[in-house]
Every structure is written in structure tokens, then in C-alpha cells.
Amino acid sequence: MSLLFSIFALVFLTELIAWIGRSVLLELVYAAYLRVFHAAVAARQRELKSELLTLKGELLRTSAQDQFAKWAKLRRAVDKGLADLEKLNGEIAARKSGFSMRFNTAVWLLTTGLQFVVGWWYRKSAVFFLPPGWLGPLGWWLSLPFAPKGSVSVGVWQMACKRVLKAGERVVKDLRAEAGKKEKPS
């Protein structure tokens, strides 16, 4: 029975990631990664942004005609700050690009790749056996490709789990849509 539940958990994890979305997960994990492993860079970015907002606010309050020297000095400071922030954002974007590639590879390996490995490793194993004659002469296809006759193979079980989870997803979406229609007044 552990193979049965292990495959279901693996398929559920894959579908959960699909429901949430890889891009959403990437953003969440990358934000945590940046704060943990590159805290100085993230702090510098926040600091530059707050400095720029302060300088821009002061620049907007300063008259270019009446206080030109002060305005020009603030303008140069804003331009320098924007250039520094753009450079820092470029570094962060380059880091994120590499992180994104590694993250997507890891997610694929932990979901789809692992499903392939499990399907290959247990290709001749039965997840469970059906009662004799339950589906008549059509019961053989549940054991495809290599499981014993009268059983359900890993590949068929993965496909069944995925179909049930997809159907459950549609039901939940339909229920949420119905609830949304009832909440909105006509």
C-alpha cells in the first residue's frame, strides 16, 4: 500500500505546484533566497530605493528657478542614485536568472522526473490487484505496460490519480465561481 500512497502523494505534489504556479513559487522562494543568502544586496536595494524617494520628494519641493544650485545638486544625486539602483537591479536580475534556471530544474526533477523514475523502477510491480473478472476481458489494459495481469500498473495509477485531481480541481473552481456569483448582487 505504500507504493499506492507514494505515487498519489507525488502526483498530488506535481498538481499542487501546477495549481499554485511555478512563477509564484519562484518569486516566493527567490525572495527568501535573496534575504537569506544575499541579505546585504537586498538591504542595499531597499536603502537605495528609500534614498531615491526622499531625494525625489525634496527635488519636487525645490524650485528650479529660485534655487537652481540646490535643484541641480539634487538632480545629480537623483541621477546617480538611479544609475546605482539600475546597476544593482541588473546584478539582482542576473542572479535571479541563474536561480530561476536551477529552481525550475529542481522542480522538474522533484515532480515530473521523479514520476518517470518511479514509473520505470516499478514498471513490473503491481500497485494493487483487482478482483478476478472484475472488468472482464478489458482488465488487461490496466496492467500495461509490464505489470502482472489482473493488476493496476504504476503508469495507469499515476494517470488515474492525475485525472481524479484534475477533476477535483475543476469541481473546486466551479464551486468557487458559483459562490462568487451568489456574493455579487445583480
Automatic annotation (TrEMBL):
It holds the Pfam family CHD5. Its main location: endoplasmic reticulum. This is WRB/Get1 family. It comes from the Eukaryota. Gene3D superfamilies: Helix hairpin bin. It is a multi-pass membrane protein. It comes from Mycena pura. Belongs to the WRB/GET1 family. It is found in: Endoplasmic reticulum membrane. One of its GO terms (biological process) is tail-anchored membrane protein insertion into ER membrane. InterPro entries: Get1 (IPR028945), Get1_fungi (IPR027538), Helix_hairpin_bin_sf (IPR029012). Residues 1-3 are lumenal. Keywords: Endoplasmic reticulum, Membrane, Transmembrane, Transmembrane helix, Transport.
